[in-house]
Design a protein that fits this description.
Pfam families: HlyIII. Keywords: Membrane, Metal-binding, Transmembrane, Transmembrane helix, Zinc. Belongs to the ADIPOR family. It comes from Anabas testudineus (Climbing perch). The protein is mainly alpha-helical. It has a single domain (51-361), classed as Rhopdopsin 7-helix transmembrane proteins (Up-down Bundle). It is 65% helix and 0% strand. The two termini are 20 Å apart. The model is unreliable at 1-7, 147-172, 326-332 and 380-387 (pLDDT under 50). The structure holds zinc ion. Zinc ion binds next to helix 3 and helix 11.
């Protein structure tokens, strides 16, 4: 248990007792001291504060996600888990894992100091952006190439035939040829650029534009969703690349349902994030359990889970279509995944995001570093633990 030097458990604070930056709208009690030690922070996971629910609603999902994720490697016909075929899937895993871990740890550790609190939120925004690029890599290799093989064939039959037909004029295999250039050249780079713009804008809402921060953050994350989902939109607008009698076709029919559910959960999570329901209706009633941020976490996780199911559906369809898989590079005109085109992209992006976070953290330490010393001097009783 958390004990003071003088032997008493640390009390939780009211919204009027913490610095204004730390307060959340309509949350009145359950605030932790803004100068917890690392140990106090970690232990507060097991104590009802207004961050406890926020921690668990993104920490437990890590294990649920893992459970559904590893199933893929046991499927019949699946290559070994370290085969190039699975590079994009692992990058998707990295994106989701970092998102959930960073988010839960940010909620747990953000009461160490005002500066740490800022850094926690910057890391949170950074991992959300990296996650969208992880999704894009998975969409690009598992959903998009199927879009590329589709459609020109009147017979929907042998993929070999389609390939030969398509060979002289590579663009003909796209149902909507204008998309050829976009997918093959701009899709991944634009996902990366948009991710970086998002990190920059969201970090900035913590220093400027604070009044409309929830709306800006929500809108800013709509853009990467729209960009990274283009392969799915494409698939929904065109016909399936698989022969209607094939098992791949049957396997991939569930894809659209999972995608619509993924969108629905995203929409509901945005509603919670902007509306601040239910605590808006009864300020103080949902301080510890049931406030909007916890519902927001649950909905974002459900949307990730449906996205995982969607990606798995497409992976399964490819695995069932042996001509596509073996050998991977010969039938697709697109280059297969390589270390550089998957892990390399992710590494470059993460490095850029880390640099942005370092820059904003340095700015935050210049702004809030002196401020907390000031607060400690003004309110020694509130901010010093014991004498
Ligand atoms: Zn959160």
């Amino acid at each position: 248990m958390m004990l003071l030097n003088c032997g008493q458990p640390l009390p939780l604070l009211r919204h009027t007792d913490v610095p204004p930056r730390v307060t959340e709208n309509f949350i009145l009690t359950g605030y932790r001291f803004p100068n917890y030690t690392l140990r106090d922070c970690l232990l507060s996971a097991f104590r009802p504060t207004n961050e406890t629910g926020n921690f668990w609603t993104h920490f437990l999902p890590v294990f649920i996600f893992l459970y559904y994720f590893v199933e893929v490697f046991g499927w019949e016909g699946a290559p070994h888990s370290d085969a190039p075929f699975f590079y994009p899937l692992w990058n998707y895993f990295i994106g989701v894992f970092c998102l959930l871990m960073a988010s839960s740890m940010a909620h747990l550790l953000n009461s160490m100091s005002l500066v740490v609190r800022e850094v926690c939120f910057f890391v949170d925004y950074g991992t959300i952006s990296a996650y969208t690029v992880g999704s894009s890599l998975a969409y690009y290799y598992y959903i998009h190439p199927r879009a590329g093989i589709a459609v020109t064939g009147e017979h929907n039959g042998s993929l070999m035939d389609l390939k030969h037909e398509a060979a002289p004029a590579p663009m003909s295999s796209y149902a909507i040829p204008e998309f050829n250039m976009f997918f093959e050249t701009f899709y991944i780079p634009s996902a990366c650029v948009v991710a970086i713009i998002c990190v920059l804008s969201c970090c900035n809402t913590r220093q400027q534009w604070r009044q409309h921060r929830y709306i800006i953050r929500t809108l800013v994350f709509l853009l990467p969703f729209l960009i990274s989902s283009t392969p799915v939109f494409y698939r929904l607008l065109t016909t399936s690349p698989y022969s209607t009698t094939s098992s791949s076709f049957t396997a991939s029919t569930a894809m659209s349902t999972f995608f619509y559910r993924h969108c629905l959960w995203l929409l509901v999570s945005a509603v919670f994030n902007i509306s601040k329901l239910p605590e808006r209706l009864a300020p103080g009633r949902f301080d510890i359990w049931g406030h909007s941020h916890q519902w927001f976490h649950c909905c974002t996780f459900l949307s990730i889970l449906d996205e995982l199911h969607m990606i798995k559906t497409e992976v399964r369809a490819i695995l069932l279509s042996s001509t596509l898989l073996l050998p991977p590079a010969t039938l697709s005109r697109l280059p297969g995944p390589t270390i550089g085109s998957t892990y390399g992209v992710m590494f470059l992006l993460q490095s850029t995001i880390v640099s942005i976070i370092a820059w904003f953290s340095w700015c935050a330490s210049c702004i809030y570093g002196p401020q907390i010393d000031q607060l400690a001097k003004e309110h020694p009783k509130k901010y010093l633990k014991c004498h």
